[in-house]
Design goal:
The structure holds two protein chains of two kinds.
Chain A (H helix, E strand, L loop, with lengths): L4 H8 L8 H14 L25 H11 L2 H19 L5 H4 L3 H32 L8 H9 L9 H26 L11 H24 L6 H12 L15 H17 L4 H16 L8 H13 L4 H16 L1 H10 L1 H16 L5 H20 L9 H17 L8 H19 L18 E4 L8 E4 L3 E5 L1 H6 L8 H8 L8 E10 L5 H7 L15 E3 L2 H8 L24 E6 L7 E3 L17 E3 L4 E7 L4 E8 L1 H12 L3 H22 L1 H4 E4 L22 H41 L5 E7 L5 H12 L19 E6 L5
Parallel strand pairs in A: 9-11
Antiparallel strand pairs in A: 1-2, 2-4, 3-4, 4-6, 5-6, 7-8, 9-10, 10-12, 12-13
Chain B lengths: L2 H23 L3 H4 L2 H5 L3 H30 L4 H33 L4 H22 L9 E6 L5 E3 L14 E6 L8 H14 L1 H11 L6 H9 L1 H14 L1 H11 L3 H4 L11 H16 L3 H12 L10 H20 L10 H4 L7 H11 L7 H20 L5 H16 L6
Parallel strand pairs in B: 1-3
Antiparallel strand pairs in B: 2-3
Helix pairs in contact in B: 1-4, 1-5, 4-5, 6-7, 6-19, 7-10, 8-9, 9-15, 10-11, 10-13, 11-13, 11-18, 13-14, 13-15, 17-18, 18-19
Classes of the chains: A alpha+beta, B mainly alpha.
Chain lengths: 814, 419
């Protein structure tokens, strides 16, 4: 038997459309002419600033400098890890989340409360200690070294795991940045004139913000964070800086955890830069209040899927069953279509689509067809998926394939598809083909839709969990990874696979590596941590931080690794920046390598009490792979590139130095810095280069909104990106030479840092007082705002001075 | 059915139920070993262990359930007799499964504290790595190794791939590390050597080589070495991995009462201790030349002066000692099918762990050697060799060396994700 879309398509010509052609065209053209492109989404946040004049506040530069200091990927990582651990704590105890219905959330909250209480208490107590220490004294009298020492000595109590420890450490660092900024301002005599709040008051406000912050993390874990948080977070700092902001729209430039951090940091900074206690209290109050807001109650996609499965199984009429399913699917999956649907007539569209989809799937719905389909799916996935004996008789995988196909068809529809009936029919058919190819075994597909030589199909997982969270490909492929290939396969953040194998698995990537490749696909709401947690039967994946071993499988990677590009999926580049932000439909792989395990080390976070004395840490932290960061600071006319050499890489360099193999050492450094790390930075400048500029509180080019200017398109963002890349490119070239000179003159420092027990070594190349930076800064300001662009034509790239070099043990990014 | 038959049936049913409930308790793995102990085992190995223990108990439970089912309905006297015979077999099956499960739960439960667990995980890694270094180039998979700590003088191994008490095949190798040797555990590499020789079938090949390649020596001498082949193979494996450290440690372990050092038992696979220590010293001499092993041998000969003792084994021992240079050549420099027609010293050159190479390692890595997780991960076996060499040659503060060994092993134990 084969699935034949051509037959389905011809039968559709006889299908009576519920749309009248004229009506559809007229309504959609009305939409084009009169409806604003972006509607006003209802925000749960009531906190609004008055639009002021365009003059920036006096401390705009101090403000963005503080924002930049506080921004930290490690903090977001800790939020992600805590959300994953919370989710594990509740999902381990329930068998079916959908069946629990309304009882689920109170239950999950109770579990989360138990998990979060220690970290909340410890963090609040630490802030209280800081407040106590800094309140009594004249703020200006504190010197930087003493402040550092005070904060270094703040210890966590008995936090149960490394994610909470990292959270605690990150909050303490943020508080330190606020205190230091306060001290500096005090030294400038600013606090004396009442432009900022006394530090004790500020710290009191910050303490009040930890609980609402954790509430947001819980919402994130529950998948209940309101979509409007992102635009709201993006606009907070802009409002303070009197930068004109775009209409609040979800454009995906910032992910949920970035939004949580951005909002928190902006509020922290604002509580320092507010002269009025009442206003600062207002910030905390609003932050607290909005934490409790619930997003508009969306119908549950899982419940709707279950209902559709049940209806199909029970032989209900197909079109009405799909009709019931579509509203939930459209709302959950397609915000853009959702908006358009409300305009062109939701019911009509749903009627039309359900009729069309019913026609397409109807011949697979009868029991006598769906059971062999399920059998066929189970057969191809028996070994890789771990179906149980009881599953062998089940028709569920067959119904799942049908429902997935319908859902993924809807997911692919976009605004342009619903212009009129014929384009909707065409788009639906094409989306349906793709969706069917994803969910049906090869035997059921026309030859041109099959992945050559692959018999597998994508199956909902985990089979015995509280709910489906991802898909797994039902075939596991053995491969040999040649060293040259490992260098060219890129993982998240532009990290070469070879680096992952060397640094995080402790393997020698100069030798061919035998691996079994497991493939996964994200469904709406998937987090990589859920895949790792769900794959209990795969050796080495289901461990703490196991998700760090999942890599993106785009078409190029699939071609290199599996010799079959069609198993990969290309998604927007922003979904390749980090593991904490992935998208539905994105594919990933895990390498099962005999004897290889994710390398870890005991946490070095200071703890009070007895916990760490006998090495009795209960959990480890993963070792860090080599990495790079750029900081372009227009406020200080300074550019920094921070090179982080993993422990494995730095020890290999020291080994060569100690063998007096200076040529070998220089060669490895040139290779690592010049080819690998600089390349990672240049190709991912949008997410790896922090930009400090009073007009860019977003800090990263990737966070800038796509300003669709009527005449220039997205020129602002693109031009800023080009300038930043150009600057980094200039600096990166001289950084290679700077690094070699440094190793020639001061290798002992590097040796010293490498012998420290911290993980790896950071070498900071600091290019200060760069001539011409302020001019480029004003061009950026023009690009960002509505100033004249006249200056853009006559600026040139600066000449780069000789860098200062600082070396620190551990990963120390700015 | 008579009343007597019914009484007998009920009695059998009671007995079956008794053993069945006991067998079901064997399935509660978390009751058998503490959760802390399970937590101290690397996650993949913990899964393997759980599955294999459950396989042992499930087989017994299934057997018991079948019997219980048969006893639910009335039975004839004949069938009751058959059931009684099966019941006896079921009891035996229970006891052997219990023996198997008890062995592993005691081993797992020895991970009493996080520190002991970390040190034992380090031992697991050392054993597995030592195996991997030889098996991987030969294209063989490396079995998992679980080490456990126990009292006593000598280490021991329950090899992977062997039939256990209850007939199941052991999925992992279990190696006992002795309390006294926890911070000087070269003996576990010797035990891992048994696993290697078993997997590559080297023991038989080596035994034959001792018979055929030592024609200058008496048949009694050749027969001795041939009979000792399995232990000598394991010593050779420990030597190529850890050099003099293994030799010094062996000396300290076997240096007991003179009667034991000179005692010879036919059919004992262990060489006479006197011969064994000098055999190990000969390995050092052939590969490293002069060194602290000479002093060790002198002291050993002084302590156990063969001219002053009258044991019946003395003439044989003298003859064996005279053959040692050739024995070591056969052992380490002859080619074997087991090693892909290479010699053991070609496959794992002992020079990598010569005192000079170890001192160079210490020099090139600098102070990071015992501190950096990258160095510890990469060079764990050579670190074992280095510290063992220094302790064996009395180089430096012995107390500090033991502390250093504990510290880096603890770090190694924490370098993999736990259960």
């Amino acid at each position: 038997m084969s699935y034949n879309a051509a037959t389905a398509s011809s039968s559709l010509t006889a299908f009576e459309t519920p749309f009248s052609d004229t009506g559809l065209v007229r309504e959609s053209s009305e939409w084009n002419e009169t409806t604003p492109a972006v509607p006003d989404l209802e925000s749960p946040f009531s906190f609004e600033f008055e639009a002021g004049d365009s003059a920036q506040p006096v401390h705009a530069t101090d403000f963005v400098q503080l924002l930049a200091e506080m921004e930290s990927p490690a903090f977001r990582q800790s939020l992600y890890d805590m959300a994953a651990e919370m989710e594990e704590s509740w999902s381990a105890r329930i068998s079916n989340e959908t069946a629990m219905g309304e009882r689920f959330e109170p239950f999950a909250r109770q579990e989360a409360f138990t998990y979060l209480s220690p970290v909340l208490n410890e963090t609040e107590q630490a802030i209280e200690k800081v407040r106590h220490y800094f309140s009594g004294n004249d703020l200006a009298s504190h010197n930087e070294a003493a402040i550092d020492q005070f904060f270094d000595e703040l210890e966590t109590g008995s936090l149960p795991g490394p994610a909470q420890e990292q959270f605690f450490k990150s909050i303490v660092n943020k508080v330190k940045s606020v205190v230091k900024t306060g001290v500096n301002l005090a030294k400038k005599g600013i606090s004396a004139v009442g432009k900022i709040l006394p530090i004790g008051k500020v710290l009191e406000k910050i303490k009040g913000m930890v609980r609402p912050l954790l509430e947001r993390v819980l919402k994130y874990a529950l998948g209940k964070l309101p979509a409007s948080l992102r635009p709201h977070a993006a606009n907070l700092a802009k409002r303070f800086l009197n930068i004109e902001s775009e209409t609040a729209v979800e454009d995906g430039s910032m992910n949920e955890l970035e939004a949580i951090e951005t909002e928190f940091n902006s509020n922290l900074a604002q509580s320092l830069f507010t002269a009025d206690d009442q206003e600062a209290s207002g910030i905390v109050y609003e932050y607290e209040q909005s934490a409790g807001e619930q997003p508009a109650a969306l119908p549950s996609l899982d419940a709707a899927r279950q209902q559709l499965m049940d209806d199909l199984r029970q032989g209900e009429r197909i079109a009405p069953a799909i009709e019931k399913f579509l509203p939930a699917a459209i709302l959950a999956l397609q915000p853009v279509v959702k908006i358009a649907v409300s305009i062109i007539g939701r019911q009509r569209l749903i009627n039309y689509l359900s009729g069309l989809l019913a026609k397409l799937i109807e011949k697979y719905v009868p029991q006598q067809v769906v059971k062999p389909l399920a059998g066929s799916i189970i057969d191809v996935g028996l070994s890789a998926i771990g179906f149980e004996t009881s599953d062998r008789e089940s028709a569920a995988p067959g119904y799942e394939a049908l429902v997935n196909t319908i859902q993924e068809t809807v997911e692919q529809l976009n605004e342009s598809a619903i212009q009129d009936e014929s384009s909707l029919a065409a788009a639906t058919l094409s989306a349906f083909e793709k969706a069917a190819a994803n969910n049906f075994p090869a035997d059921y597909l026309r030859r041109e839709l099959q992945v050559p030589g692959q018999q597998g199909t994508w199956i909902m997982m985990p089979r015995n969990g509280a709910k489906y969270q991802y898909k797994k490909y039902s075939r596991v492929t053995p491969v040999t990874i040649e060293p040259a290939v490992a260098k060219h396969i890129m993982s998240f953040g532009g990290q070469p696979l070879a680096m992952f194998l060397r640094d995080q698995l402790g393997l020698d990537p100069a030798k061919p590596i035998q691996a079994k490749v497991h493939l996964y696909e994200a469904i709406p709401g998937t987090r990589l941590s859920q895949i790792a947690a769900g794959e209990k039967n795969i050796p080495g994946l289901s461990v703490l931080n196991g998700y760090l071993q999942l890599h993106p499988l785009d078409v190029k990677t699939a071609a290199l690794l599996l010799k079959e590009g069609l198993l990969g999926a290309d998604l927007p580049k922003k979904l390749l920046a980090s593991r904490i932000h992935i998208g539905s439909g994105q594919r990933f792989y895990f390498l099962e390598i005999d004897g290889a395990r994710l390398r870890t080390m005991p946490s070095l976070v200071k703890k009070s009490g007895v916990i760490n004395q006998s090495g009795a840490t209960t959990k480890n932290v993963p070792v860090q792979p080599s990495d790079i960061q750029g900081v372009v600071n227009f406020v200080k006319a300074e550019i920094r590139i921070n090179y982080y050499f993993s422990e494995t890489e730095s020890s290999a360099v020291v080994e060569k130095l100690n063998k007096s193999d200076f040529f070998g050492a220089a060669n490895s450094i040139r290779q690592s810095v010049g080819n690998v790390l600089n390349d990672m930075l240049l190709k991912n400048a949008g997410s790896k280069v922090k930009v400090i500029h009073e007009s860019i509180p977003e800090l990263y080019v990737d966070h800038l909104e796509e300003k669709q200017d009527q005449f220039m398109g997205a020129i602002g963002k693109e031009a800023i990106a080009k300038i930043v890349e150009k600057l980094i490119g200039l600096v990166a070239d001289s950084a290679v030479q700077g690094m070699l000179n440094y190793f020639r003159a001061r290798a002992a420092e590097f040796r010293q840092a490498q012998s420290d027990e911290a993980d790896g070594v950071t070498v900071k190349m600091i290019f200060s007082n760069i001539p011409g930076m302020s001019k480029i800064g004003s061009v950026l300001k023009a690009l960002k705002g509505s100033f004249s662009l006249a200056g853009i034509t006559d600026f040139s790239m600066p000449s780069i001075p000789v860098p200062d070099v600082q070396v620190k043990a551990g990963k120390q990014f700015d | 059915m008579t009343v007597t038959a019914n009484t007998a049936r009920l009695s059998l049913l009671r007995q079956v139920q008794h053993w069945l409930q006991a067998a079901r308790r064997l399935q509660l793995l978390d009751h058998l070993a503490s959760s802390n102990a399970w937590h101290g085992i690397e996650s993949t190995m913990a899964d393997t262990l759980r599955n294999s223990l459950l396989a042992s108990s499930s087989a017994v439970v299934q057997r018991g359930e079948q019997l219980a089912k048969q006893l639910e309905a009335p039975n004839s006297v004949d069938s009751l007799r058959a059931i009684k015979r099966e019941l006896v077999r079921f009891r035996t099956a229970y006891l052997t499964a219990e023996e198997t499960i008890h062995f592993y739960t005691v081993a797992i439960n020895s991970r009493t504290t996080p520190t002991i667990a970390a040190l034992l995980r380090a031992c697991d890694i050392l054993c597995r790595r030592s195996l991997q270094e030889i098996l991987q180039p030969l294209g063989k998979p490396t079995p998992q190794v679980l080490t456990y700590v126990d009292k006593g003088v000598g280490a021991s191994i329950l090899k992977a791939g062997l039939r256990l008490w209850d007939g199941q095949v052991s999925a992992i190798a279990a190696i006992k590390v002795t309390q006294h040797n926890l911070f000087r555990p070269t003996a576990i590499i010797h035990e891992t050597g048994h696993q290697m020789a078993h997997l590559l079938n080297w023991n038989d090949e080596l035994a034959t080589a001792f018979q055929s390649q030592l024609p200058r020596y008496a048949e009694s001498v050749r027969a001795c070495f041939s009979g000792w082949a399995s232990e000598i193979a394991a010593d050779a494996f420990a030597f190529v991995h850890t050099g003099y450290a293994a030799v010094a440690s062996l000396n300290d372990v076997v240096s007991g009462a003179p009667a034991a050092v000179f005692s010879y038992h036919a059919n004992d696979p262990h060489p006479v201790s006197y011969v064994r220590v000098l055999l190990n010293v000969e390995m050092c001499r052939q590969f490293y030349g002069e060194g602290p092993w000479n002093d060790l041998a002198d002291a050993f000969r002084y302590e156990y002066d063969i001219d002053l003792v009258q044991y019946p084994s003395v003439p044989l021992i003298r003859a064996c000692v005279a053959a040692l240079p050739d024995v070591v050549r056969v052992l380490l420099k002859s080619r074997y099918r087991a090693f892909g027609n290479q010699s053991l010293s070609q496959l794992l050159p002992p020079e990598r762990v010569s005192p000079a190479a170890l001192e160079r390692l210490e020099y090139i890595a600098g102070p990071a050697l015992f501190n950096s997780h990258a160095w510890i991960w990469k060079e764990c076996i050579r670190l074992l060799a280095l510290t063992g060499y220094k302790i064996g040659a009395l180089k430096g503060d012995i107390g500090a060396l033991y502390r250093q060994q504990e510290e880096w092993m603890r770090k190694l134990g924490f370098s993999i994700e736990l259960n």
